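Notes, p. 3: input format for complexes.
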Amino acid sequence: MARWDEILSLPVQNPPTLEFSSGEIVWSKVEGWRDKLDRVALIPFARVGDFVRGESANKDCPTRFHVEARRRRSSSASYKPKVDGILEYILYWCSFGPDDHRKGGIVRPSRNTYVPKKKNAGRPNTKRGCTCHFIVKRLIAEPSVALIIYNNDKHVDKNGSPCHGPQDKKAAGTRAMFAPYISEDLRLRVLSLLHVGVSVETIMQRHNESVERQGGPCNRDDLLTHRYVRRQERSIRRSTYELDPDDAISINMWVESHQSHVFFYEDFSDNDPFTLGIQTEWQLQQMIQFGNRSIVASDSRFGTNKLKYPLYSLIVFNSDNKAIPVAWVITPRFSSADAHRWMRALYNRIHTKDPTWNLAGFIVDDPAADVLTIRDVFQCSVLVSFWRVRHAWHKNLVKKCTESEMRAEMLSRLGQAVDDICKGHGTVELFEDCMEDFIDASEFMDYFKAVWYPRIGTWTTALKTLPLASQETSAAMEFYHNQLKRRLLNEKNPNVYQRADWLVDKLGTKVHSYFWLDEYSEKDDFARYWKDEWVSGLTSWRKALKIPDANVVIECKSAKVTDQLDGDKTYIVRNPGSQFGTCNCSWADMGYLCEHMLKVIKVCREKGYITSSISLLQYSQTLMDMLHCSTHDSLIRDHAVSLAMLPMLQPEKLILSCHSGTSGQVVVGLVLKWVCSSSHNNILYIEISDKLRERRVFGQNKELLNEKEKKRKL
Ligand SMILES: [Zn+2]
Ligand SMILES: [Zn+2]
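Output follows (714 residues plus zinc ion):
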């Protein structure tokens, strides 16, 4: 009994890294069988996979661990409540063992059906009698915890000599120097390249070239074989999305075989609709890396008119501020009660991996989004993005109004109405006036009346209550939306759009591959990457930063932007300085905010022709509110000043010297000038509004805590 008391009192270790190895946890010695001491540790059961991966990536002796034996107690079986009862027992063994196929090695009798293959000098057998292994036990007493017993942690054979890796002299020059399989990164790279149509030959050619350049193989990935790549290609070619003629059964089968890609699944029931949440391991990693203390945005209702069920994407932004989809949710209905369940599941999944993960802000693109649920689950600020509506208006004006000046004027009026509402003094009447004034442009106004007028009320409320996401974020979301459209909705036979199994399959294979490759630095080696369907490259915001000021000439009602490559080509931007402008380039013709409009906005702002953007105004307002709080609250004032100083500590741009006597207001003013030219609005806004919220809820929390404390004592 003493042994179990000791084990159950050990701390559960949960390192905040994606993978971790035995070197990163503390091991305890506990009395085991026959008075031997066992080396044990406790980790969350959900993280056993992370431990196995981390342990496989051992720097001194890379390998892989496989499940050598597994026993599970069936859930229905009754059991005596014993302290040492186990639900599950898994034995992991180094893949270079336990058998030994080397000359004179021992193979267990049960495995002696093995017939040695014709050997190739460079590739001797993988089984080399390695004794390294560990045991994972899931206890009945603590099912969420895994007990690891790790007594044989050296990669040696039964004689105690190294039997693979750099320490093993006999392994030199063979595969046994390296881990027995290619890395997860290379596996995904090969799969992604195949999915987007790069040939086996091209993949192998590029691979061999790079191994040659570095002077021969020096790690496991350098030993990628033609055979492996060909096998993958064949299995992709032979697979089908239609696992069953019945779409619902087919989806069920997909979920069964892709458990690790599914974070939430519920079939239709009397009360709830079908909901499927997809997130691959790579997407989870991206969400942890780029979402932590940063922003997640949602792109909702994608393909509402085309697909059987619309698609909801959650995206994060990488260092170039380009969107990466980190989860996809497919469901026929997006109502608040349903969202709570999958959001909680997603949050829990991330927190299992990284308990310190925190979101700074969540951007919604739908005024009906359940803000309370988001705040409840993610504990962060919620912002709203207007890109979808601006894009729809712009796109439809291009289609339905051929007169370019009229088009620009209408867009300007609509934009003015939105700005006034965001600033807090506009109402729905502004749109009613628009509809009256532009009665001549009947085709667009009919569309506006039918589609947007009924929703304008909810949008007005959302714009008045939630801070607006920045233009840079809008540009990134537009870019993502366009990428998804080109990568997903490019089928020759549109009938497939009416099957959900097709959608699930295409997201998990082709679409996932495109986004994976976007992040892969050597993608440019593949000519196919430059094909139109990839739409790679920078967002229009980032492109705008590259246009020199000299290329922009601002006139009264329009601006001219000279093309960077072709000096004879110019673009005409109308409504200069407004995001509700127009431009005659192809990107703007599709209704998107183009780099020319964004560059003109930047120039206008620098020259003082226009005031700050709405998101910046909202940011400064919050900062001022903070500074104007009552004098006795010096903590919050200090915080406002230090937050205002924060962007100045960042490199480049305006360097200001601030003397200790400078008042908060002056600092804020100067910093706002700086922020005008930068793209940090969202984060800054969130940091500051978070602090305000914290202060506001502080009092309530204290009461709650007191109450909890009272209950506990009872
Ligand atoms: Zn080993
Ligand atoms: Zn343009």
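The first helix runs from residue 2 to 8.
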